[in-house]
Structures
1.
Amino acid sequence: MLESQSKWIFTYNESNAGNLQELADLNVSPIIKQILLKRGMDTAEKADQFLQPELNQLHATTAFSDIDKGVNRVKKAIEDGESILVYGDYDADGVTSTTLMVEALRESGAMCDYYIPNRFTEGYGPNKEAFREAHRQGSK
C-alpha cells in the first residue's frame, strides 16, 4: 500500500454547532448534517434542495460557449457511424461521469468506447500519446 505524502490537517469548526439546529428536522444522520453544513447548506431549504434535486436546478446548457458545436459534432459522428472515445479520469467522479457519458452515447446509437489513463504511468490530465493511439485506432 502507498504511504501518503501529505500531512492531513483536520479542521473542526465548532461555530457550526449552532447551525445544526437549522437542520434539526432533516431525517438524516448527524454526520450527514455536519457534511451539509461544511458544504454551505446551512438551512433546511438549502439542504433539501441538495438532497432532493430537481431538473430545473440544472445549469442551462446554453450557458456553455460553443456547446452547439460539440452537440452537432457528436450527432454527426453517430449518424456517420464514427467511433467515439470518451477520455475519462481515474478518480471516483471521473469513473462515474465516464460511465454515464458512455451509456448516454450508446443509448443515442453511438459506437462508443472509453479510455481511463493509468495514474501512475500516464500522470494527470490529458495524455498526448493516448490521444494519438486513439486516433490510430479510428477515433476522431
2.
Amino acid sequence: MKFIKPLGKLLLATFLFFSLCLQQVYPQSLESRIDSLLQATFTPKGPGAVFLVAKDGKVIYQKAFGMANLELEVPMTPNNVFEIGSMTKQFTAVAILMLVEQSKLQLDDEITKFIPDYPTQGKNITLHHLLTHTSGIKSFTSMKSIRDIERQDLTPIELIDFFKNEPMDFEPGQEFKYNNSGYVILGYIIEILSGESYADFIEKNIFQKLEMNSSQYASYSEVIKNRAYGYHQKDEFMNKNFVSLSLPYSSGSLMSTATDMLEWNEAIKNNTLLKPESTAKAFENCTLNNGENINYGYGWHISNLNESPSYEHGGSIFGFKSMGVYLPEEDIYVIGLSNCDCNSPTVLTRDIAKLTLQNY
C-alpha cells in the first residue's frame, strides 16, 4: 500500500502547518485586542500616546497613536519623550533608598535633622512619613494660592517656604493623603546630602547608570529630540498651560520614553540600583499608626489586578498623563504615556495588563 507514505507525509505537513499558524495567531490576537482598545481613544489626528507591553523583560507590544505635535502635524512615534508627572516619585524614592545604603540617612530620621528650622508644629515627621504620604503636611498643589507662584522659578527652599507654615492636615501616620509637598522635601534632602542638584543626582546615579538616554529633568528651553508636545482639551485642543518646572520638582518634573521606563522597571526588578532588601522596602504595603494598610509603599501603589499582586503609579502634569503597571509574579510590565491630559491612560494600562495576564 504505497499510498500510506505520501498520506503520512501530507498529515505531518498539515499538522506542522496548523501548529505554526496557532503560534502566530496567539500573539496577533492579543495585539489586535490591544489595538482595538487604544484606537477607540486615540484618533489619528488628535493628541496621541505610546503604549508598551513587556513579558519577562522582552517587548511584546509597542505602538504609537495620534500626533506628537498638532500644529506641525507630526505623528507620534514609539521614541517620543513625554513628561511623566508623578511617576517621578519612584525615582525620588529610590534615590532616598540609595542614600540610606550609603549611610547618609535613615528612614526614621526626622526632617528637622536636615532642615532644622522646619516648623513641624510639635510633630515628629520622618522621611518614612514623607515617602508614604502620611506626614500630614499640607500638599502645596491643593493650596489656592499656588496660582500666585505657578509661573515663578523657585529654589527648592523657596518652594518649601511657600507651604511649610500651613496647618497640618492630620497627625503624622494617622492617615494616607496623596502629598506632593513631602516629595519636594525629599528632593531637597537629596540635594543637601549629595551636594548637587536633584536633576544632576538623578542624571548621574540613575539615568546614566541605566543608559536611560532619552530621560532627563524636564526643560522648556532645551531642544529635546523627539519631544511630544502637551495639550488640553476644552471645546477644542489647546497648547498646555505654562507652569514653572521648579514647582513639580522632585514630585513630578522628569521626562522619559516608554522604552526607558521599561529599562527602569527592569533595573528595579533586578536590583541593579539597590540591594534586594532595599528594593523590598519600596514595595512593602505600609501601615498607619492603627495598623491599617495604606496600599502604598515608597513611590508605588500596592494593588491587585485579577488577584495578581500589582505595583502601579500614574502621573498627571499640565498636558501629559502617564501610567505604569507591573505584575511581579507574571513579570508583565505595561506603560502608557499620553500627550493630552484629556486622555488618561490609567484604565487603558490596567485593561491591557489584564488582557496580557489572560494570555500568559
3.
Amino acid sequence: MQDRAPRITGIGHAVPPRVVTNDDLAARLDTSDEWIRSRSGIGTRHHVDPGTATSDLAAEAGALALKHDMRSGGTGHVDLVVLATTTPDRTCPGTAPLVATRLGMGGIPAFDVNAVCSGFLYGLQTATAMVAGGAAGSVLLVAADTFSTIVDPDDRRTAFLFGDGAGAVVLRAGTEPTVHAIDLGSDGTQEDLIITPGGGSRSPGSDERWFAMQGQAVYRQAVDRMTRSTRGVLERVGWGVDEVDRFVGHQANSRILEAVAQRLGLPVERVVMNLDRVGNTAAASIPIALSDAHDRGLLVGGQKLALAAFGGGATWGAAALTWPDLPRA
C-alpha cells in the first residue's frame, strides 16, 4: 500500500565518554599507533566504564532519534522497538524491552535481533517489513554493542579493533519510501570465522568467554560478500554504481571499505568513514556512521545511499536508500 511506505524520520547515536587511543593500547600491548592505523585505519575508540551496559547506550541513542523524529514532525513515540545487538545486558531476558521501558514506552512489543555486525541491516529489514505490512505504524530500530566487554583486552589481534556505541533510527509509514530494497544472506558453515565460543547451550560451562576472529578469512569474505550484496541490491532498484552518492559500509576496517569501493567501481571519496574516531562498533557501526555523517552535513536529502555489512554467522547484507530531508541539530 502506498501509504505504508517506510520512511526514516529520526536518527541519533551515542558513544561512551571514555576515549581509548592507540597510544593507550601501545602502553600495555606489543603494538603502536602506526601499526594499528596501517592495518585498520583506527585512531581512537570509545569504551564503556564498569557498570555501563549495552542498554544504557541503546536508550541514549534511542532517545536522540525520537527527539529528532519530533523535530521532523513525528510524535516521539513508536509502536515497536527492535534492538540489534550481540552484547545484550544478559543472556536472558532480551534487552529491547528494558530499552523500551527506559524510553517511557513500556507495554509495546520489543525484541532483540542478533546478526552480529550485520545486525542493523537485519533489523532494518524487520522494521521496514513491519511498517509496510501494517503490523506497526512506526518502529524505533536501535543497534548497540559493547564489544569491549567480550574482547580479551590482552589480545593484540583484536583488542585494538573494537569500540562501543549505539545508533538508532525511527521509521514511520508514509507515502514515499526512503528504504527501497534490502538484500540479506547467511552461511552457517562459517560460524567459526567470528565467534564467542563459551556461554551458550553448546558449551555452557566453557571458560572461553572471549571473542575470537579469523582475521584474513574475514577480510576476504567481507570484501566478497559486501560487494556482491551491494551489486545485487542496486540491480533490484535499477541504480547504476555511478548513481550512488554515498556508500556507508560496516566500519570494520578502512582497507575493507576501500577494497569494496574499488570492486564496485565507486570513487573512494563517496565512501563514508568514521572508524578512525570510533573503531568497529559492530551492529551499531552503520547507524553511527549515518548519524555522524548527517550531523557533519555529508548526507543531504535526496542522495542515493548504498549500505553494506558482513558479520558473524556468517551474515551479510546491503540496502538501497534515498536519504530523507531531515533537520540538523
4.
Amino acid sequence: MSIASLSTLFYFILQLLHILLSFGSQSWIYIKSARILRSTWISIRIRCCQILYWPIFLQDNGLRSLSCVEYAEKAALHRHSMWSSLALDVLLGNLIGWALLYNAESACWWVMNFTGEITYKSMRSSCAWLMGAPAGFKLNTELAGVLGMVSLNAIQIWSTLSVFLGFLSIYIIKGLAISGILFGMTIPAALIIDIFLLATLHISTLHWLVSLVYSTQTQALADLWRLFR
C-alpha cells in the first residue's frame, strides 16, 4: 500500500507538470512539439499508466483465480510479464543512464564526430557520385547537376544549423540519461527515435522532393503513352 501510494503521488506530480506545460495547449509550439516528439509522448503516457496501475495488476484477482485454473494461469502470466518487463526496463535505464551521465562529454564528442563523418564524407560523396554517374539522379548531365547542387545546398544548410546548435547536445545527452534513470530505458529510446527523425529531416525532405519529381515524370510518360496508343 505504501508503494502504491508513492506511485500515485509520483503520477500526480507528473500529471501536474503536464498540465503546467500544456497550459498553452492551443499554441503552435505545443502542437508542433507534440507532433515531433510523438513517440516520446506515447511512451511517457504508457509509463505513467504503468506507474499508477502496477500495484493493482500485481495483487491477487480474488475468488475467480481460485475457482478457475485457466484464469489464474493467465493472470499470473500477465503479472509476471508486467513486473519483469518493468523491472528490466528500469534496471537497463539506470545502468545506461548513469553510465551516460558520467560520460556525457565523451558521448557528445562521439556523436558530433559521427554526425560530421556521415554528413561530410558519406552524403556529400554520394551526391557528387550521383551528379555524374550513369546511374545517378538523371541520365541528363545538366539536370543531374541541378538536382545534385540542390541536394548539396540542403545538406550544407542543415550541417551549418547543426554546428550552431551543437552546444545543446551535451544537455540533450544529460536529459536522456536522467529520463532513463527516472523512467527506464523505453523513454530515452523513444526520445532518441524522435531526435533521429528530426536530425534527418533534410534527408526526408530531399526524398520527398525527388519522389515527387519521379512520380510526376512517370505520370507524364504514362499520359504520353496513352496519347500515342
